[in-house]
Structures
1.
Amino acid sequence: MSLRRLNHRNQTNHINHSQDMPNWKEYRLGEIADVQNGYAFKSGEFANYGTPIIKIKNIVSPSVDLNDVAYYSNEIDKRLEKFIVKKKDFLISMTGSTVNQMASAVGKMGRYPFDTPSLINQRVGKIYSTSKKVSNEYLYYYLNRFEVQFDLATNASGSANQANISPDQIKAIKILLPDLSTQNIITEILSSLDDKIELNNQINKELEALAQALFKQWFIDFEFPNENGQPYKSSGGEMVESELGEIPKGWEVKKLDSIAELKKESVKPFEKPKNEFHHFSLPEFDTGKTPSIEIGEKILSSKYRVFPNSVLVSKLNPRIPRIWTIIDCDVDSICSTEFQVITPKNIDYFSFVNSICLSEPFIQSLQSKVTGTSSSHQRVNPKDIINYSLAIPQKEIIESYHSTIFPLLKLDSENRNESQKLTTLRDSLLPKLISGELEVSEVSQKKPVYAKTR
């Protein structure tokens, strides 16, 4: 029996023995909540604008991602009202895989974070309270755990790669409830951590947008500061013709490989079975840009080594850009070979190289060079990544950009590291709080530690 399965059995046994907690009662989920199946939209109803339609792929636990969605452009009539999703509703994938924790996993759950409503497609379920005995917030935290998802996946019908769960299976889940006051304290403790994580995420989005706006201003619009601190092009700076169009005088058209290189140092984690590796994988990128920590014996394939001050660029499905900025990393940091590790040849060029990889022209270039007929398994050749053509300015301009942007990248990295610690703390508190193992009073006394700090 695996350690995770043993932990699951111990946790389940502990939760079910509620006689030592007289104020806690056990229910079947169906006694206090319901599950709404999604609507079976016809392909002809999908549009490029309107109300977003959430599919299984859009549930990116613990949230919902509205990138790469279809839309419903007609008016939402009474027929569709029960399929509407509002902020803080939580969803579950009712079809998917049981063999991994990829974006297609069955039983994964995510809470809807947006103010504007969406609709749910078939095989996406919405779980909601039908009783005053339980709050939706408590339901979310109770159900969004590995133990619950493990049970659902284990009991799913179909094959490992195409498994299905039903509303009745979900409603058969046993749930241990304290009184509403205790529920509210538990959810307040856990949500304070989630709020801080979400705040860090919002700050990072703003930092990334600011960095890319400055990159566009300097290196696409050519409005970098001239020797007098004025915008170069609009102040009459001299432009010359090049194969890429007009560029500032003194700039050169070169390949990305003139200032950066691909690192392909192979690592075999299974040869160090007891070492802990920080694993930068596609699923971890999709669920928050936080590497997982895994021991070598669990990683059975070769990986690439990840270096500080590098950029990970995914060659898989570039229609969904996955560009991961790495400032600091552990010695035993590795990544999926679907990522290409790009490092600057000069450390002062790091911010410039990173912004190039995040820029719209670079991403469009990758998307134009994909191979493969399947939309889910298209790849770009690594040579096309490093051979990207661009206008490269004088060294002084690149270094000035780095001194301006790098503090933003550093803050972004610090926020992600803090969020990783908060996530670990939340995940360790959650099972103890909802099983009654840890009294809420014990945590409430330390509440300032977990409260929002910004």
2.
Amino acid sequence: MATSKTTSSDGAAIAWEEWGNPSGREILFIHGFNQCRFSWARQTADPQLASRYRMVAFDLRGHGESDKPLGPECYAADKLWGDDVAAVIASAGLKRPVFVVWSYAGRVIADYIRTHGAGAIGGVNFVAARTRVAPSMLGLGQRNLRPMTSEELSQNIAATRSFLRACFELQPSQQDFEIMLAFNMIVPARVRALVLGRDTDTIDATQSLTCPALVTHGTKDQLFLPGLAEFTASCVKGARLSLYEGIGHAPFWEDAPRFNRELAELVG
């Protein structure tokens, strides 16, 4: 299906796309820092998920095919990020989707809850999701983030390649890595800096959830250590913790069969 665009509250265009069964239960995928909606290819192309569910994924502001304004005011406020999510939900006509939030998207779902409430959320799969950032929860892959904000292209490329490698314990194929690197590199260095400059503790919002919740995390995650998942699961009422042995920051890619099966169990 062709890419659609919706306009957020500040005029930014947010790109989104849908796959699967138009009449099925709804899943809304939200990617992590520096990625895009194509990150979810092993879910949106899965025949079993596509036969049962309507799947929607969008590009965060500053990422993918969404607008990339360079002003600090375009990234600082929780409301803008929450409004982006609300705009996609409205434009796609979603009723009560299950949110799948990867990495930085743990911050974005908090923005949405803070500004629009949790009434439209049918469930949440926290995937290596950033709900709180304390030094004890950070892995060595975090060291790539600062040089990724460099305007010096050679340094920027080298750091982005290292960051992307750190997202996986089981590495993608060369072809898949090249595709990922391409959509990572279209995020401007200034946007990266502005996104990373936002405050980090969002558990106050996610603690308010009462919907079904699953916390998915790889034991070999180099960005966020498993202690973060344990923290999230302890704070979200009724959440189930699913640890993936020998898997890195991208369990939905590295072990897609298990991930898709557990997601289907959550969605129902």
